[in-house]
Amino acid sequence: MNSLLEIRDLHVSIGGTEILKGVDLTIPAGEVHALMGPNGSGKSTLSYALAGHPNYEVTQGSVTFCGEDILAMRPHERAKAGIFLAFQYPHEVAGVRLQDFLRTATMAVTPGKFSLANFMDRLNDSTKALQMDKAHLTRAVNEGFSGGEKKRAEILQMLMLKPKLGILDETDSGLDIDALRIVSEGVNLLRGPDFSGLVITHYQRILNYITPDRVHVMHKGRIALSGGRELALELEAKGYDILKEEVALAG
User: Fold this and answer.
1) Which of 19, 34, 150, 247 could be cross-linked to 45 through a Cys-Cys bond (beta carbons 3.0 to 4.6 Å apart)?
2) Which DSSP state fits 92?
């Protein structure tokens, strides 16, 4: 299977402090991978670096997406190429209606003609799948939304944009059981040969709904372990002490 995302020896610094210290990661087309790890290990830094956040300085390494070097691309160019980031803490955008935001974004990334009728059909299907109140569409982006409503709005954006790579930065945080299931079902609607995902999480509970093809564990700015679905279950049972065991075995 062809690789969609290739990360090689990636080093990233914030304010002169190195956070990522040589990340190697490959995500093939059509696969969903989970990225786990303790606080401060660099998971969110990786997501922001891939999206092109200007505060995250890439000092070494390469990132290719669909065979192209994306490190020279600006954030909106990466988004148009098919990279989507669902934020852990979605921002409010005052004065911009959610429906208007979605229409503008969808038109910007959709090649060829995309009619208003097409847009409304997709929007209706997506809001229904996420069990969202359509009244939210006429409100400013995330303004006055609960934590769960903000997360659903993030997944709604992803369903509308249909990216090639969806990066979910702890989308499960703050969600109750029902909201977690609904959000996960929304992600699963995209699964197929044209969609890959990177699910960043502390806990394996979201992986009960979004079954990963591979699980990676980040530790001190690097990928320390990789394995199948069973690795997430092992982490749930043993915690991140498993990292100490691996270090001891390696030594």
Assistant:
1) 19
2) P
Question: In terms of pLDDT, which residue wins out, 92 or 243?
Answer: 92
Average pLDDT over residues 42-56: 96
Helix (H) or strand (E) holding 12: strand 3-14
Return the number of other C-beta atoms located less than 10 Å from residue 196's C-beta: 25
Q: What is the pTM of this model?
A: 0.92
Using the predicted structure, report yes or no on whether residue 229 has a pLDDT greater than 70: yes
Q: Is 245 helix (H, G, I), strand (E, B) or coil?
A: helix
Contacts made by residues 97-101, CB under 8 angstroms, sequence distance 24+ = 97/137, 97/138, 97/139, 97/140, 97/141, 98/136, 98/137, 98/138, 98/139, 98/140, 98/141, 98/142, 98/153, 99/123, 99/137, 99/138, 101/141
CA distance 231 to 7: 21
Dist. CA 129–CA 156, nearest whole Å: 9
Give domain 3-250's CATH number out of 1.20.120.80, 3.40.718.10, 3.40.830.10, 3.40.50.300.
3.40.50.300
Mean pLDDT over residues 202-229, rounded?
93
Edge-first strand order for the sheet with 32-36 is: 83-86, 165-169, 196-200, 32-36, 214-219, 222-227
Q: What ranges in the chain are assigned the alpha helix state H?
A: 43-51, 75-81, 98-109, 116-129, 147-161, 177-188, 229-238, 241-250
Which residue has 């954006």 as its token pair? Answer: 157
- pLDDT for the residue numbered 249: 45
Question: In whole angstroms, what is the distance from residue 215 CA to residue 213 CA?
Answer: 7
- How would you label 92-114 residue by residue, b for 16+ Cβ within 10 Å and e otherwise? eeeeebbbebbbebbeebbeeee
